[in-house]
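Give me structure tokens for this 253-residue protein.
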Amino acid sequence: MSFKQLMEDASAKMKSSIILALDLEKDKPTRLLSHSIRLLEATHPYICALKLNRQTVLPLGLFQGAKRIVDKAHEYGLPVIMDAKINDIGNTNRAIAEYYFEAGFDAVIASPFVGWEEGLQPVFEVAHKRQKGVIVLVYMSHRGASEGYGQLVQNSKSRKLEHQYKIFAQKAAEWNADGAVVGATYPEKIREIHEILGDKVPIYSPGVGAQGGDVTAAVKAGARYLIVGRGIIQAESPADAARRLRDVAQKSR
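Here you go.
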């Protein structure tokens, strides 16, 4: 089964488009692991997938603590995304992707800035051979995103001046990416990018809550999945927060 289908099935089964981001604050590895498992146990009925960032994986160890979280998520039928932001030469990128897939991750997030040839091509080859996914960064959720993703550049194919994020969206479609990351903090960008991608490449939107992104605005603009971290993990009741977000997203479609 492809990663796209895995996500669609999990979303339909859980009646949710919310992805829990376990982007936890710095702590001792034992506490990070126990906190992650508790959050997963509390919120799993209301989410459709899990995302881990390097700030959580680094102290836990890939094949030690991180794999335990991945295995627990799989027990609940939840796909797991590694937010690796892969961004190096092809040989290195291939090795990075292979390690994450061997640890059980179902998809990786990668940066299109490195290009295709001797860049992300090996990642896509490894991923699709293993029926895993590659999600491409198209426009990030933080305030400084415009400095890179929003700059006006010359399209190497058409020779026309275009915004970088539109070129990245075109590449996501051309490369048959399994998803595109577009910040929920920029619904107008989601709308523009959705016009390029259509239903071929689903949009994953981080930035809901703590960064100011709005669930309804992101969904109506074209976001398929919403990635939420602090809005859930720092809530008094993470389960209630996840449930509320799920319900708002469902009503917005």
